[in-house]
Design brief:
By secondary structure, the chain is α+β, with helices and mostly antiparallel strands. The chain is built from 4 helices and 9 strands; from the N terminus they run αββαββαβαββββ. The longest helix has 29 residues.
């Protein structure tokens, strides 16, 4: 190959962002050398507005007798359940019942601790937040409070993010091929396993409030990100067949 020749291949297919000048007068690859291949990866992000408010409230009690501590927790949960029944659009899940024993130490008498978590879910803050305030009045403490994206909406956002990333990859492939004086012939080894990755705003940890006014929380936008990769087979614009753009 003469001193003025360019290949390997035309200096580049390893550089996806090559300048147009590098592709000028780029000859087609020699016969039998195999088609040039671009290895591309694109990431896309979809912004999602959370629509589900989730509150975790914890009832706990201590007593030298295990059954006494458990009875107190059960009574708190029964009162909480009666309040929830009257709230429209709020669902409740009773979780994580536990009993533990603490032996005497550092001047603290031996005692049993019982606790249970009550999870409230709803899409209308004006219905759920006042109920959380009522739970605090009963003696339950807020463990976590925050907005989430429901799973079906996360799945839909993941599909959108993958399609957006694929579209960006296709545009990048066509732009790179054009810059190199070639065309896109096919796509191989397309990998969608890099997403989606929801960047979820987890419920915030909160202390029990001295005042029993309802707590306040805002629904901040969240992101769902997906990454796709593919091998892009390039061909000469003068080659046989119809290149795929």
């Amino acid at each position: 190959m003469g001193a003025g020749a360019k290949p390997i291949w035309c200096l580049l297919l390893t550089i996806a962002g090559a300048q147009t000048a590098l592709a000028q007068n780029c000859p087609p690859p020699p016969a039998g050398s195999g088609p040039p291949v671009l290895h591309l990866s694109e990431t896309a992000t979809i912004h999602v507005q959370p629509t589900l408010l989730v509150a975790d409230l914890v009832a706990s009690a201590e007593s030298p007798v295990a059954v006494t501590a458990q009875r107190r927790v059960n009574d708190l949960m029964a009162q909480a359940a009666s309040r929830v029944e009257k709230a429209a659009g709020v669902t409740v899940v009773f979780r994580d019942y536990a009993t533990s024993f603490t032996d005497r130490s550092n001047g603290v008498a031996a005692h049993w601790t019982a606790s249970q978590t009550l999870e409230l879910r709803g899409k209308v803050a004006d219905s759920l937040l006042p109920l959380v305030g009522q739970m605090q009045t009963l003696g339950l403490a807020i463990g976590n409070l925050g907005w989430q994206v429901p799973q079906d909406e996360l799945d839909a956002a993941g599909r959108q993010a993958r399609l957006k990333a694929l579209s960006s990859l296709r545009q990048e492939a066509v732009a790179a091929a054009t810059t190199l004086g070639l065309s896109v012939a096919a796509y191989q080894s397309i990998d969608l396993s890099g997403g989606p990755i929801p960047v979820v705003d987890r419920p915030r940890s909160m202390m029990a409030m001295a005042a029993m006014a309802p707590p306040i929380t805002t629904a901040d936008p969240q992101d769902v990100t997906a990454t796709v990769t593919a091998d892009v087979i390039l061909a000469s614009k003068l080659g046989s067949g119809t290149p795929t753009h």
